[in-house]
Amino acid sequence: MDATTDKDLLVQEQIYNALCYLGESEPEEILNSCDEYLRQHDKLAYPHRVIILKAMETVVKSNIALLDKSTAKEVIRDWQQAASNVLVAVGQRFINKVMEEVLTKFQPGILPHYFVMQTFANLSVSNGE
């Protein structure tokens, strides 16, 4: 997964495809490996983090019926946290665009998701002056 940091877009795409391919035969193993990698590399630049997150999303969507409930719950929580972190990182430069996107998650009469609120909070902390 270290190759996701390669500047060559073809290499990045090959890593994504390899993770998805491996995820077809061993979805829980790949999801756990991606999760562990993201935890160990918490300073990984967001473009590279997104490659791994997209692969995780594809593996989950393709294998949702096969996943153990506890694995699915843990992966979803971790995936949402990682996605929130990516939005906060992008928001340090493009706060208006990120806020615009996050605000679309608010629906009248429906409580916002926990990670939407957490993302708002983290955006305010990271952009405070």
From TrEMBL:
Organism per entry: Eudyptes filholi (Southern rockhopper penguin)
Record's protein name: Maestro heat-like repeat-containing protein family member 1
Gene name of this polypeptide: MROH1_1
Residue span(s) of domain MROH2B-like N-terminal HEAT-repeats: 19-127
GO cellular component: cytoplasm
